[in-house]
Design a protein that fits this description.
The protein is of the alpha+beta class and 88 residues long. It contains one helix and six strands; from the N terminus they run ββββαββ. Bound molecules: zinc ion.
Length: 88
């Protein structure tokens, strides 16, 4: 099993550009558990989300993990962050 297999559990939707996650709610990677959105942001943007920050979702696909569909904002930002597992 390749190093990145566990984080390649998404399919790319050509219409929306969304990366639709179908893996577990959390994934084990390099010695800790991650939310897929946080892990993909960290690996692809090559920077940590950071303490007190969250990734606000910019698209309408609940399970999307595309880092380009997120923006990093302070946790106390007025708009509620997307929570994993919620449905609209
Ligand atoms: Zn998306």
């Amino acid at each position: 099993m390749g190093k990145y297999d566990r984080i390649k559990r998404y399919t790319k939707d050509p219409e929306s550009g969304c990366w639709v996650w179908y893996g577990a709610e959390k994934v084990w990677y390099e010695g800790r558990m991650w939310y897929p959105t946080t892990l993909l942001w960290t690996l692809i943007k090559k920077e940590p989300v950071g303490p007190g920050m969250i990734l606000r979702q910019l698209c309408a696909t609940p399970s999307c993990v595309n880092p380009d569909h997120r923006e990093r904002v302070p946790k106390d930002s007025p708009i509620q962050p997307y929570r994993w597992g919620s449905r609209r």
